[in-house]
């Protein structure tokens, strides 16, 4: 959606992005964990994927603090998901 909104890309790109964002929200409702735990897991994975995406696409290498922060997030998600 960002490309459509900010960079004058075709409307179909914005509509496709909107549909993907909608599905991203709906998928979490089908998880076996509680809704909050499912979103916490998505959040942790999203942070790591955002760092990797920026590194790959924008060629911006994450610094040590960003990696440490990502690891802290994943540890937090693990604590939340492993507690039954």
TrEMBL record:
Entry keyword Cell membrane: yes
Membrane topology summary: Multi-pass membrane protein
Sorted UniProt keywords: Cell membrane, Membrane, Transmembrane, Transmembrane helix
Source taxon at top rank: Bacteria
Pfam families registered for this protein in UniProt: UPF0060
Membrane-spanning segments: 12-33, 39-57, 64-82
Gene3D superfamilies: 1.10.3730.20
Gene Ontology annotations for the cellular component aspect, listed alphabetically: plasma membrane
Localization per record: Endomembrane system
Broad class of the protein's primary localization: membrane
Protein name: Small multidrug resistance family-3 protein
Organism: Alicyclobacillus tolerans
